[in-house]
Design a protein that fits this description.
This protein is α/β, with parallel strands linked by helices. The protein is 39% helix and 14% strand. Bound molecules: pyridoxal-5'-phosphate.
Length: 454
């Protein structure tokens, strides 16, 4: 039986609370390991010279909090899950200690540019004007004001064919895809080869088996898609991830003729730099294309706000699924986004960030072309990352590691491929200031050639 030494301050009173606090602390820091059996209340009370009621009360409190479990005839034990002492994080790698940090994911925006003041103004407006009832569980399909604003925005900016009834507010593209696949019951889902490997677990969890379809300089090969036997296809037509190819007009037409269900991942469509954005596919065939988008690249992934535009019957099935699964998205943020859209804050933010990202892209591409001409820089028309095709014998894992060591968000393309292809990496530039680009590429060149950095 565990012998417990518990210091109690009798002057202070509240002995049960003191005992509970001591035991909680011991469990948290691992002195009392998971599964440890605690003394019977009578024994511990005798050891501590307190009444048995004090111990019973402390045990009951910790059982209610989940620190202890108590079973009739088996005594009281430390619960299995709560007490694992926190692992110290691994020490930073020496070569990255002083490196500046330019981001986690190649597709992520520059979070330091989040429009805090304007967002705050929208939140303040929402909190000061909405009636209390508005903070109840909302419509699981999203608050009507936001669907209204988004329908207007998507029509105007993405040439989508939507009405508020076709829109479901979700927690981002990822959730939009999960729900759509779940509702459609897709079993064989064609995906672009290569494509974002982060999505593979999501697709499998939604019951879909990915069927890779090759991509070339025009985007997805629609003839190969037709031969694949897949019922539906998931693709990134505005800016293929990872290669950055924009689906060509010919392929768009072929895809619409193909006749299956199209899941359109519109993850970074707002950022097209040299021309107007290409309209979304959904606008061409709203009966067969399900569009998913979000504010993850335009504002911040942490907001977890996105949308699905789908034919009305499917939209109501998605809404019902959302209601059954988790009752919908946070209401205050939805109203805030609606206000942000209505007052022009979103458009202004996009105009400003598009200009700045374009400068950053230009600086990075110029530096790469000048200093590493053996690397083919692709996919620069849109989005927040570039696709760097290495020379034939290039080591993409080493190149990605070299870029990461500089603080850049970079990933090798190998794990995203189903068929072999030229070695390549993707590199995010959203957080790399233009004036740092040349220096970063200079250092990348040195690291990639395996020389020492002093
Ligand atoms: C290609 C692609 N699609 C979808 C997503 C998921 O986006 P969201 O944050 O909207 O769920 C990401 C995120 O990095 C992405 O890169």
């Amino acid at each position: 039986m565990t012998d417990l030494h518990v210091p109690l301050d009798r002057q202070q009173g509240g002995l049960a609370a003191q005992l509970a606090a001591e035991l909680r602390g011991s469990i948290r820091d691992g002195r009392l390991a998971p599964g440890t059996r605690l003394p019977a209340s009578r024994d511990l009370a005798a050891d501590l010279a307190v009444s048995r009621g004090v111990v019973v009360e402390a045990y009951e409190q910790l059982v209610a909090e989940g620190f202890l479990v108590s079973r009739v005839g088996k005594g009281t034990h430390v619960a299995a899950a709560v007490s694992a002492p926190r692992q110290a994080p691994p020490p930073p790698r020496e070569d990255t200690v002083c490196a500046p940090f330019y981001g986690h994911r190649p597709t992520s925006p520059d979070l330091s540019g989040f429009p805090r003041e304007r967002w705050l103004a929208s939140v303040r407006h929402v909190l000061s004007t909405l009636p209390s009832d508005a903070f109840d569980y909302g419509d699981p399909g999203g608050v009507p004001e936001l669907r209204q604003e988004l329908a207007g925005y998507l029509k105007r900016v993405r040439a989508a064919s939507v009405r508020p009834e076709n829109l479901i507010i979700v927690g981002g593209v990822a959730q939009g895809l999960s729900l759509s696949l779940h509702v459609l019951g897709v079993e064989r889902l064609a995906i672009e080869d290569p494509s974002s490997s982060r999505q593979f677990p999501l697709l499998r969890r939604a019951g879909a088996t990915p069927v890779p379809v090759p991509c070339d300089d025009e985007g997805l090969d629609v003839k190969a898609l037709a031969a694949s036997g897949a019922e539906a296809v998931l693709l990134t037509p505005a800016h293929h991830y990872p290669t950055g190819v924009v689906l060509s007009p010919g392929r768009r037409a072929e895809l619409i003729e193909w006749g299956g269900i199209v899941l359109e991942d519109d993850y970074d469509a707002e950022f097209r730099f040299d021309r107007d954005p290409v309209g979304c596919l959904q606008g061409l065939a709203p009966d067969r294309v399900i569009l998913s988008g979000s504010v993850s690249k335009s504002l911040a992934p942490g907001l977890r706000l996105g949308w699905v535009a789908a034919p009305e019957d499917l939209a109501s099935a998605v809404r019902q699924a959302r209601g059954e699964l988790d009752l919908g998205s946070p209401v205050i943020e939805q109203y805030a986004l609606a206000h942000f859209l209505r007052t022009g804050g979103y458009d202004r933010h996009l105009r400003r960030t598009r200009r700045e990202y374009r400068r950053r892209r230009d600086a990075l591409v110029t530096a790469l072309n000048e200093q590493l001409p053996e690397i083919r820089v692709r996919g620069i028309e849109a989005g927040l990352h570039v696709y760097l095709e290495l020379p034939g014998d290039g080591d993409e894992a080493a190149a990605a590691a070299a870029a990461q060591a500089l603080g850049l968000a970079a990933e090798p393309v190998g794990p995203m491929r189903f068929r072999p292809g030229p070695p390549a990496i993707v590199v995010g530039f959203a957080r790399l200031p233009a004036h740092r680009a040349a220096g970063a590429v200079r250092e990348l060149k040195v690291r990639m050639s395996g020389q020492r950095i002093d």
